[in-house]
Amino acid sequence: MSDDQSAAIAAMASLGEVLSCVGPTCGDTVDWIAAEKVHGTPFPADYRAFVAAFGNGSIQETVGVHIPATSDELGSGTLSRLSEEALADFAVNRWAPADRGRYRLEDLLIWGETGAADTLCWITTDPDPDRWPVAVYSRGDLEWSVYPCGMAEFLLKLLRDEWPQCPISDSSLQGMRDPRFLHNKDAAASWELGNNPWE
Question: Is the model's pTM score more than 0.70?
Answer without folding.
Answer: yes
